[in-house]
Amino acid sequence: MTKLLTAEQMRGIETAAIESGSVTGLELMERAGRGVVEAVFAEWPDLLQASHIAVVLCGPGNNGGDGFVVARLLKEWGWEVRVFLYGDPDSLPPDARANYKRWRELGEVTVRDIDPASLQDDDLAVPGCSLIVDGLFGTGLTRPFRGPFTAFAQARDLSDKKDVRVVAIDTPSGLCADSGRILDTAIRADMSVTFHAAKLGHYLDRGPSECGKIVLCDIGLKPGSESRPAVPPDEIVRLVERPAHAALAKRADHHKYSHGHALILSGVPGTGGAARLAARAALRIGAGLVSVVCEDAEVAEHAAQLTAIMIKRANGAAALAALLEDERLNALCLGPGLGVDRARDLVPVALGAGDPPSRGRARSASPPRRSVVLDADALTAFAEAPADLFAMLHERCVLTPHAGEFGRLFPDLAERLDATPTKGPAYSKVDATREAAARAGCTILFKGPDTVIAEPSGQASINAARYDRAAPWLATAGSGDVLAGFITGLLARGMSPMEAAETGAWLHVECARAFGPGLIAEDLPERIPEVLRDLEHAAPRRAR
Ligand SMILES: NC(=O)C1=CN([C@@H]2O[C@H](COP(=O)(O)OP(=O)(O)OC[C@H]3O[C@@H](n4cnc5c(N)ncnc54)[C@H](O)[C@@H]3O)[C@@H](O)[C@H]2O)[C@@H](O)CC1
Ligand SMILES: Nc1ncnc2c1ncn2[C@@H]1O[C@H](COP(=O)(O)OP(=O)(O)O)[C@@H](O)[C@H]1O
Ligand SMILES: [K+]
Fold this sequence. Notes:
Rossmann fold, 11-stranded mixed beta sheet, binds ligand NAX, binds adenosine-5'-diphosphate, binds potassium ion, nucleotide-binding
């Protein structure tokens, strides 16, 4: 499991380790600085060849302390190092001050005001500078800054080396470590070296664009003891990772009904493509049977296009309710191409809330807890009255909004997320998705290159299509319909909503990456066999 931490969680782990006596803050700072230098040489081995010139920008906290360590180690390596401190040396925290003093035994520090009244630009031209080290702010950033950014921009611009590299210590300064949002401005890095665990901000929002590349440096912090972990496990956000092959394999002694029967509800004639995409995805991911549900007038369109996928007729809500008396139909998908009017009629039935409220029938006493994925029109249909939808949702539901749909159901949360952040930690997509899941009472998958998945308990994860998992060709019409189909198929196969959402999202990105440029939505389900084979080959061999 790759855990992602908030700044507060990181501080808690560090404090617990120091209080336990297993390590000192000074030792942690030394390991952090050393880790940055090692990462620099590993990433840019040409810098090992000769001595170079570095500019190290240090801030008023421990991030600056790490910067002084880096300066010292580079100097010991034979480099020429120019150090700038933005802040008052006498106000540095103790460990940072100790490293400031150690550096002062080796070299000069140009001290600058952190909030300058005017531009301080006299001595930043460092001819021949090969490396800029950003040790201004890390997890302690609380407000926007300007002065050091101007200095950085000048250091970069004034370097006569066009290939000057920028390494950020922990986080690029200006980036909020909890949200990946930028407080006014940020120092874009080519590489960010972070400690113990990556932070949420490395994967959310603007984080991946500002961090360059993430390198994780082990500074020897042990996980908390089982009885009293420094951070409660439930509060830790996970990065969605490669699923176990066993979770997706089919057993030799099982039959098709062992893998569930998924129903995908479709819309009026001419709009059925989205439902067919979702259906194909559900079948490829391994649902035993998949049917598209449509009205009489739509049968011909679907019949012309579908083969292994079956067609079931249901003209209206009452007919759907009758169809759903068959409990083998264990997972439903509503939304892709459904149309908002039809969604308003059918969603209550799909959710086991009895006939549509307009008919005035009482809600059934114990509605079947069938798995239900609601996407697209099934979400937009409740834009005027989200609470009506939330009242019907249950724990086997998954909502898969993109940012626009999220804003329709949770306008207040979207507003907070869209507001320009003025202080750190800023409200994050994880915060918004967790709040949304608690309000809706079900699993929410909030789409994007930084897809966030959360369930009402607060468990949350990020499926990042960034860094070495970038999948920009997923930005294509219908790819969301395929994702809804993947999740529905996995629910039909018996996964929990959270596991289905995470696994579906991971496979979605993997299929896009397996296909590469030129991808359109139809291509995604067709990559599943290859992706599953790769998972099988990656799995440890076992007797089957
Ligand atoms: N937590 C840990 O376990 C470790 C932390 N280390 C380093 O320590 C960093 C965190 O140190 P700190 O908590 O001291 O935080 P920072 O060094 O990120 O900066 C915080 C300081 O800057 C001030 N500040 C924040 N935003 C400002 C702004 N816009 N303008 C002016 N001042 C501003 C704060 O009031 C505080 O004094 C990490 O990012 C990492 O680099 C490492 O030494 C290794 C171990
Ligand atoms: N730049 C991107 N990188 C990675 N994934 C992306 C990107 N843009 C969109 N996606 C993914 O593609 C899908 C698009 O879904 P959606 O917006 O609902 O599209 P549609 O309604 O056309 O099906 C989502 O899963 C989203 O996370
Ligand atoms: K930094």
